[in-house]
Amino acid sequence: MAFDIAVRHRLGEREIALTCRSDARLIALIGPSGVGKTSILNMVAGLLTPDEGHIAVEGETLFDRASGVNLPPAQRHAGYLFQDLRLFPHMRVQANLLYGRRPGGALALADVLSFLGIGHLLHRLPATLSGGEAQRVAIGRALLSAPRFLLMDEPLSGLDRARRDEILPVIERLRDEMALPILYVTHDIREAERLADRIIDMSVDQAEW
Amino acid sequence: MDMSLSPEEWSVIGLSLKVSLVAMAAMLPFAFALAWILARWRFPGKLLLDAFVHLPLVVPPVVTGWLLLILFGANGPIGGWLERWFGITLLFRWTGAALAAAIMAMPLMVRAMRLSIEAIDARLEQAAATLGASRTRIFLSVSLPLSLPGILAGSMLGFARSIGEFGATITFVSDIPGETRTLPIAIYAALQRPGAEAMVSRFAIISILLSLGALLVSELLARRVSHHGL
Questions:
Q1: CA of B159 vs chain A CAs: smallest distance (Å)
Q2: Chain A partners of B142 at a C-beta cutoff of 8 Å?
Q3: Residue B192, domain member (yes or no)
């Protein structure tokens, strides 16, 4: 099972819930803003603790309220591509890319550089990168941390048309070549239909678990 | 005006720089720890700690000096202990002047550092955690470098404050030429003597230049923080 998630969480007035058991390589979470898509990614990454439920990825339990399992973010091996990227502003691209490098990672820096076409950016600071460049560096940083799965939060939303056409094929190749399950958040149904094997609409009631 | 300095005047300036630098360096780790605790921790009594840190800013300096005298005097709880176990005396020594300056500089240093710690983007620390970094590594590689300009700005502010320290110092360690006679105390002593007006002017100009320089550096560093939006 790629993703086995059943969680419920109260955030102020909002109730966020998701049930998802699927072997799809890329699952898209869709729904209007405020429905809690990013909160779900944060729960899977360990940045937000659900009130109830369990989260397992590729057979490894990351969180289970009933048995008291709650791995800290550093031990979950998530490759999290944040919507706001969160590149470290005081480090050059190379230091950003290598920040999460773990021994035993399947990918070498050279592979990632050529895969993403960012070899010429190594000595730049994040503030000097274009939107598309920064996006690719953030993807590279996530891949080099030897992740067991990827979490992608609206990776195309901040980009203009040309940059989207630049990043979309990268995501398709990630899906097809890396053999990593991907949980993908978007509010664009066409984007979801193009990329996902399975689409979950979070605005539809998720509470039957 | 004659700006050439006598050996005695040079020793006053040297002593002032030594006292202020030692005060700043010694207070730095404590001020940073306090700033971190006030910025990041939540605990009952936090308001009390905050008020305690700011006390030297609002209490008359002579009271701070008197408290130091009680605590660090030969029979004081801390002073007696230091004397017995380490043979260290702070009273009437330049090290005592540094202690008084450090205590008086603490509120300003903590304030500046706290602001820069609060300005650290916690989302970057979260990103580091998802990349597998331990808490120690996140602190050393993300939090500390991002707050560094604020730490340096706070330190320079503390140095500038130490250069000007008078009330607590003269109460605690008195005016001993060559040992505790720093710039402000030397100016005060010279004012009591007829015919030392030129010396007063020279010391005053040097005090202003030193404090202004430290303040400018501090301000430039603080601006670096806001420009980077960190």
A1: 27
A2: 88
A3: yes
Q: Is B2 within a domain? A: no
Q: Which residues of B touch A78 (CB under 8 A)?
A: 130
In a mutational test of the B interface, the residue from A39, A77, A90 whose CB has the highest number of chain B CBs within 10 Å is A90
Task: Give the residue among A48, A102, A63 at the shortest CA–CA distance from A79.
Answer: A102
Q: What is the pLDDT along chain A (209 residues), one digit of tens a residue?
A: 899 999 999 988 888 999 999 999 999 999 888 889 999 999 999 999 999 999 999 999 999 999 999 999 999 999 999 999 999 999 999 999 999 998 777 788 998 999 899 999 999 999 999 988 999 999 999 999 999 999 999 998 878 888 888 889 889 988 998 889 999 999 899 999 999 999 999 888 665 54
Q: Which residues contact A31 (CB under 8 A, 6 or more apart)?
A: A37, A187, A201, A202, A203
Indicate the domain borders of chain A.
Answer: 3-201
Which residue is listed with tokens 């990825």? A57
Number of A–B residue contacts, CB under 8 Å = 56
Selecting from B130, B142, B230 the residue whose C-beta is nearest the C-beta of A45 gives B130
Number of domains in chain B: 1
Q: Are B151 and B32 in contact (CB under 8 A)?
A: yes
Helix axes B61-72, B77-86, angle to 10 degrees: 40
Chain A residues 158-177 within an 8 A CB cutoff of chain B? none
A73: contact with B, CB 8 A cutoff: yes
- CATH number 2.170.150.40 given to A3-201: no
Q: Which residue of A has its CA nearest to B225?
A: A90
Report yes or no: B140 at the A interface, CB cutoff 8 Å. no
The Cα of A152 is separated from the nearest Cα of chain B by a number of Å equal to 13
CB of A21 closer than 8 Å to CB of A201: no
Is some CB atom of chain A closer than 8 A to the CB atom of B128?
Answer: yes
Query: What pTM does this model have?
Result: 0.86
CA B110 – CA B102 distance, rounded (Å): 11
% helix, strand, coil for chain A, step of 5: 35, 25, 40
Question: What is the interface pTM, i.e. ipTM, of the complex?
Answer: 0.92
